[in-house]
Amino acid sequence: MTVLSFCHSSGFGSSLSGFIIYFITVYVHKLEPAQFKVVGPDHPVTAIVGEEIVLPCHLSPRMSAEKMEMTWFRSQISPFVHHYSDGKDQYGLQMPEFQGRTELLKDGLLNGSVALRILSIRPSDEGQYHCLVLDGIFYEEALLDLKVAGLGSVPLISVERHQDGGIWVVCQSADWYPEAEVLWRDLSGRHLPSFSETTSQGENSLFETETALIVTELSNQKLSCCIRNTVLNQEKESAVYIAGQSPSKPHTELIQFRVMGPGHPVTAVVGETIVLPCHLSPRMSAENMEVRWFRSDFLSFVHLYQHGKDQYRNQMPDYRGRTELLKAGITDGNVSLQILNIRHSDEGQYNCFVQDGSFYEEALLELKIAALGSNPLISVESHQDGGIRVVCQSAGWYPEPKVLWRDPSGQELPSLSEAKSLGDSGLFETENSIIIKERSNQNLSCWVRNTFLNQEKESTVYIAGQLPAKPARLNHLNQKQNKT
Ligand SMILES: *[C@@H]1O[C@H](CO)[C@@H](O)[C@H](O)[C@H]1NC(C)=O
Ligand SMILES: *[C@@H]1O[C@H](CO)[C@@H](O)[C@H](O)[C@H]1NC(C)=O
Ligand SMILES: *[C@@H]1O[C@H](CO)[C@@H](O)[C@H](O)[C@H]1NC(C)=O
């Protein structure tokens, strides 16, 4: 136990070397289990370049850490990011890049918090941090992941020169981290493909981007350049209005292909698989083109095929693992998308966007969702208004189904009440009631129909005309499911 006396000796230099020897010893022969745990956040912490961040870390159970020794370090324990021992911050063997930028938050020590503040965050601060706490012969540590993000400058748009029969417009912005996404849009919010894009990393490790677009002369249009940090989910945007010039040049646009959707809404059934059809016209290979299926947001797509591969970064989380671009027909211009396990929330518009170089076209497609619900459940409830009240319930329909009571000849019977509600899953539940005469001795059917799918479900009961002593559920005489 000579090692222990080292740990408690005064004077920083000896304390630290003792600490290192001790640390190795403990790691090799784990002497004692710790009496506390050290807990960091269970998710990465995101810091903004130039701002400060607090890296949380605390003892569990909560106990005073005032008399303990703690080290924040990265890959090696020495030099460290920050060290605290003998009730003081110790800077002797600190990593030079953290000099003057760290502070252990002492206010929290009494309740076990050993959080570290880092000032003036830099891109190089990104990565893992260890929060190590020692108390006598006990030690514990937690690992923490720090992500760094930089929100760059407002984009600067400049209208540069005539080139290739158009006007060359450039958008520049600096100080992004990590690399930002750049997007040109027109007045209606439609994405415009850029002609060139360059990104470079400056000395401060932050990214600069420059992207150019060629707009047709005579275009009279408003353009905006939008730059987005996908870590922060924040963007900066600038717009410019370009007035048409040189009316002597004819306005020509080369149509290389068109993108064709089905021309009518596509209907999918909840839980099943659907193919959203889309193809190029005239037929040509789309193998080396970009195919982007998206809903309202171009950047967070439903599916992206680019550089000959499916790309999943920035895919909408809702569609993760459920989409596939069917490659069998891609050389023939068929860029249909398959979606598995359809959900109610998949309903709505889809864009099938195909880009080849600076040329692009898109088609809009409407997806409708339908669900066929459960067999209706009929229950005989109580006497009411001189008759017997019978209730029919069914769930899992979309859209709202039509519900009818019918006699064996198919004649509609008037309902007493009708209720429809949307359940948690986004599907409709129905409950209809009817009063039938006592002693009616009749077969009664409850019929629920999805008019969208043209499919229905029906249940029938035989009512003997006398109510059992207690309200009870009757078994179905028969259940039918018809397709028409
Ligand atoms: C511990 O102290 C810190 C700093 O004063 C405070 O932010 C934190 O909420 C405290 N935690 C508990 C559990 O009391
Ligand atoms: C495109 O491919 C899909 C899936 O293989 C197929 O169902 C569809 O008929 C094809 N469409 C055309 C126009 O070839
Ligand atoms: C009710 O339906 C059952 C089964 O279809 C049939 O056997 C029975 O005769 C019907 N009863 C009446 C009163 O219509």
UniProtKB/TrEMBL annotation:
It comes from the Eukaryota. It is found in: Membrane. SUPFAM superfamilies: Immunoglobulin. The keyword Signal applies. GO terms for molecular function: signaling receptor binding. Gene3D superfamilies: Immunoglobulins. Keywords: Disulfide bond, Immunoglobulin domain, Membrane, Signal, Transmembrane, Transmembrane helix. The keyword Transmembrane helix applies. Residues 33-133, 250-366, 376-462 form the Ig-like domain. GO terms for biological process: regulation of cytokine production; T cell receptor signaling pathway. One of its GO terms (cellular component) is external side of plasma membrane. PROSITE patterns: IG_LIKE. This is Ig-like domain-containing protein. It comes from Chelonoidis abingdonii.
